[in-house]
């Protein structure tokens, strides 16, 4: 699999207050979208998330989001190493993703941009 980059996942209480801080730090504007009841702002290497506590508790267990060239290739490699697929692959507002638990227990999201809107 080709890993193209990593995004850090940060749960925040007030997305509107956090976005300008991370826009300044990353030197780029946020792309905002909703994933169910969770509001997300993608800002450079950061995914800021805000929403109901129960949802954030689950999302905070994912260590990072790894940008990959192709989620299907990642899926094949993850199966090969014995990872457990927790969710996906599925389409999201910014591409296709899956969540996997590695054999050591670490949980990561893998995402490509194949289904991303132009």
Automatic annotation (TrEMBL):
- Descriptive protein name: VOC family protein
Looking up InterPro entries in the UniProt record yields:
Glyas_Bleomycin-R_OHBP_Dase
């Amino acid at each position: 699999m080709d890993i193209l980059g990593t995004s850090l996942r940060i749960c925040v209480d007030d997305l509107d207050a956090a976005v300008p801080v991370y826009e300044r730090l990353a030197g780029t504007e946020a792309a905002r979208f909703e994933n169910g009841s969770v509001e997300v702002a993608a800002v450079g290497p950061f995914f800021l998330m805000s929403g109901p506590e129960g949802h954030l508790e689950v999302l905070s267990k994912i260590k990072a989001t790894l940008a990959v060239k192709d989620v299907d290739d990642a899926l094949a490699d993850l199966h090969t190493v014995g990872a457990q697929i927790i969710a996906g692959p599925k389409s999201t507002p910014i591409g296709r993703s899956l969540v996997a638990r590695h054999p050591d227990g670490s949980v990561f999201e893998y995402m490509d941009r194949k289904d991303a809107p132009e």
